[in-house]
Predict the 3D structure of the following.
Amino acid sequence: MELVHEFTLQAHLGETLMPGAGPLGMRAVVSVTGGSAHGERINGSVVGAGADWAVIGPDGYSRLDVRVQVRTDDGAVLYIAYTGLLEMNEAVQRALAGAETSFDDQYFRTTPVIETGDARYAWVNTTLFVGRGRMLTDGVEYEVYRIT
């Protein structure tokens, strides 16, 4: 088994809504306002509705629940949904105030599932992916890997 870099996804983040503390932790809904995907086989723009319905637990980790779409440069639409964990450490707290992090500054891992009806990208429907993330000044960046 190997990890092969498939694409890098940058997501621009917008408004954060805070419904407040619930039974699982503090809920935060963060809108995704745009972005891009760049790789050898997947290149395009983040389009349409998207958000992260995260829960920040008492253990200091945010449980991610993200859904976005990428329209590829050749016109296909890929639906990308992922869950994951983001360690809400000091580096992340600084990033929320406008700084960036490196991939090693926090534990930030995802498990993307990609779907499409476009035959040119049918391979994504039967491929497992994992990702690692970092904070940007206006969003997040993920390196997404295909598991072979």
